[in-house]
Specification:
Blueprint: H1 2-18, H2 21-28, H3 32-46, E1 51-52, E2 59-60, H4 62-86, E3 94-100, H5 102-107, H6 109-119, E4 123-129, H7 132-140, E5 146-150, E6 158-166, E7 168-173, H8 174-177, E8 184-185, E9 193-197, H9 202-213, E10 219-224, H10 227-236, E11 241-244, H11 245-248, E12 254-257, E13 259-260, E14 266-273, H12 280-295
Length: about 300
């Protein structure tokens, strides 16, 4: 009966997520009549209606919403228990799920992954590049083990450990940079056309807050959700962008131009869910990351 109950939980959550029996059945690779029958069996077992089937979209009832919340937690805890059972302390094998915001893809994750593979070749790594709010939500849902993002206000249940500080500057093609004053007064930013990350990224929020604080109104010609796109655009056009100085180290065709006043530094942090099970792979990668930033030219956290 325990296996059947777990199947019931997954079936209910799939219907709740899709709001539709047909799409849920396709995801679960079962027939729609079978799915409907299993949900009805669960409702009979509990003695309560879990789904409202009267509208165009299938929705959880109040009782169903409460039950689904507990079901998600139960499945999350079960997955953590399975990882704990299979955890290998000698690191001959293991798996880590890491989320990071896009700027780190451009300069940090490559050498960090190389170091991790050298030290612990038996540990496989799943990388997810996304926004900070999604990283934190995934950590809370146990869809990620660790995140690399920024210190600051976090969702309840998220713990942040400082790694290093990051400095940002205006960045433009090297020939163009040679024609600009350094540092560039922020009030002259209105004369520049910018290509910036889109507004759902933490880096863009940091930039917007800086400009707003200094009452500077930039001319935004391009928005992109890719650092690589920004560097290529800036390389080939008169546009400028704002990026961490570390990114330009690997791009000789790009040159940082400090702004006056300078953009505030920000603290890069390693994020995890408070109280989460920490596998041997998670602990090893955490130690490795702290060692890595200490031995490289990253500014220590303030």
């Amino acid at each position: 009966m325990a296996v059947l109950e777990l199947r019931h939980l997954r079936y209910l959550l799939a219907v709740a997520e899709h709001g539709n029996f047909t799409r849920a059945a396709e995801e679960l690779h079962i027939s729609q009549p079978t799915l409907s029958q299993q949900i009805k069996q669960l409702e009979r077992t509990l003695g309560v209606q879990l789904l409202d089937r009267t509208g165009r979209t299938v929705r959880l009832t109040d009782a169903g919403a409460v039950y689904a919340d507990h079901a998600r937690r139960a499945l999350r805890d079960l997955a953590a228990a399975e990882r704990a059972v299979h955890d290998v302390q000698d690191l001959s094998r293991g798996h880590l799920r890491l989320g990071l915001t896009p700027t780190f893809t451009a300069y940090l994750i490559g050498p960090l992954t190389a170091e991790a593979h050298t030290r612990h070749p038996g540990i496989s790594l799943t990388l997810t590049e996304t926004t900070q709010d999604r990283i934190e939500a995934a950590l809370l849902a146990d869809d990620l083990d660790l995140g690399i993002a920024f210190a600051g206000p976090h969702l309840p249940g998220i713990t942040a450990t400082a790694l290093f500080t990051e400095t940002l500057s205006l960045v433009t093609a090297t020939p163009r940079a040679q024609t600009l004053p350094s540092p560039l007064p922020v009030h002259t930013i209105k004369n520049e056309q910018l290509a910036l990350l889109s507004g759902d990224f933490a880096t863009r929020s940091h930039i917007d807050a800086y400009f707003a604080h200094h009452r500077a109104v930039p001319r935004i010609a391009v928005e992109a959700n890719s650092i690589q796109a920004l560097t290529e655009i800036v390389r080939r056009t008169p546009l400028a962008t704002v990026l961490p100085d570390a990114i330009t180290h690997d791009h000789p065709h790009l040159t940082p131009v400090p702004l006056d006043p300078p953009l505030p530094i920000r603290t890069v942090a390693l994020l995890h869910r408070e109280g989460a099970y920490r596998s041997a792979a998670t602990r090893a990668f955490t130690d490795l990351t702290h060692d890595f930033v200490r031995t490289r030219d990253y500014a220590p956290p303030t």
